[in-house]
TrEMBL record:
This is Uncharacterized protein. InterPro entries: DUF6528. It holds the Pfam family DUF6528. It comes from Paenibacillus nasutitermitis.
Length: 341
């Protein structure tokens, strides 16, 4: 099932006690295949969805959905594990039915929440280890990558909202996880390697087996000296081409080609999108690329100083433009396509 962006009359629904704000509005010329853009705002401690057609992200009408965990929406005892959101994605799921928000937070939270209701906790734990990515698997379990824990885990979320059983695969600097339905594999990205993992066992007792381990490309400083750590960071599907994955490293943004086991740096839009320190990258089905780069790495340097890796703007390529949300401190802003690929 794919979201379609329809023009609807002005309606504002506020559910502040649930930590949820839904703003429906009439966008400018909507493109049927463009999905909302989901951002992790670490300064304001929330997940924010923007209208893909909004030109002014400071306008209230640009925000179409917001969420933060509260006791009222099922996160009693877990609110302290949220405050530095590091990952957000939407997923269709046949086991649970409908669409689900999947969230990871550097303070420890990994969670699954119904979308757009946002009013309950399907599953959620403080998993520790600085979670940087979380993926909802087709069977309802959840894969989590933790950069300080140096692991990828499969949590048995299908067994209940507090289920803490997991299988673990050790991966130095684990930063990304993406499910591949065509190959029935979990791709994971760490500091040095991209790996493909086979998830076996049962829903209640999963197991993990490494199928493929690929060295990331060598990275170089501006003076030509090699970096010791390639710095694998972002991992996402290339929508429209199931043979490709987005991969970011310390210095570059690549598309990994599964069938040839190669890293492509000459994809459409690479002239703008291939840049250092990229925290997130994704694409609309139209081919437009959505990317975030910390303000410290930009020329000239950007305005966000909330922490050492934030940005208040999101960059687009094919076509190229920038959208800025004043007073935000984003980490990732992604296309909220609920399909795996």
């Amino acid at each position: 099932m794919k979201i379609r962006w329809f023009t609807i009359s002005m309606t504002i629904v506020l559910a502040l006690t649930l930590g949820l704000v839904i703003l429906r509005h009439e966008p400018a010329t909507a493109v049927a295949t463009d999905f909302p853009l989901g951002g992790t705002d670490q300064k304001n401690d929330k997940i924010v969805f923007f209208d893909p057609n909004a030109t002014d992200w400071n306008a209230a009408s640009s925000i179409v959905w917001q969420w933060t965990p509260t006791a009222a929406n099922g996160f009693s005892g877990l609110t302290g594990a949220f405050g530095d959101p590091s990952d957000v994605r939407l997923r269709d799921n046949c086991v649970y039915g409908g669409q689900w928000l999947v969230v990871a937070d550097s303070k420890g939270l990994a969670a699954v929440v119904p979308y757009p209701a946002g009013n309950s906790r399907k599953w959620g734990l403080n998993v520790g280890g600085n979670p940087h990515a979380a993926e909802l698997l087709p069977n309802g379990n959840v894969a989590v990558a933790a950069s300080h824990g140096h692991w990828v885990r499969i949590y048995t979320a299908s067994q209940g909202p507090d289920s803490a059983v997991y299988a673990q695969y050790d991966l130095t600097g684990a930063h990304g996880v993406v499910w591949d339905p065509q190959r029935s594999l979990l791709w994971a990205l760490g500091d040095y390697h991209l790996v493909a993992l086979s998830v076996n066992g049962t829903d209640a007792a999963p197991t993990i087996r490494e199928v493929l381990k690929v060295d990331l490309p060598q990275q170089y400083r501006g003076n030509g000296d090699p970096l010791e750590n390639p710095g694998g960071h972002e991992l996402q599907p290339v929508y429209g081409d199931s043979d490709r994955l987005w991969i970011t490293t310390a210095k570059h943004v690549y598309q990994y080609v599964k069938s040839t086991n190669t890293f492509d740096s000459s994809y459409p839009g690479s002239a703008g999108a291939d840049r250092e320190a990229t925290k997130s990258v994704s694409n609309q089905l139209s081919g437009q690329i959505v990317s975030t780069q910390p303000d410290y790495a930009k020329t000239p340097v950007g305005a966000c100083v909330f922490n050492g890796w934030c940005m208040d703007s999101t960059d687009f390529f094919n076509p190229a433009y920038t959208r800025t949300r004043t007073d935000a401190a984003f980490y990732k802003v992604r296309v909220m396509n609920p399909a795996y690929q």
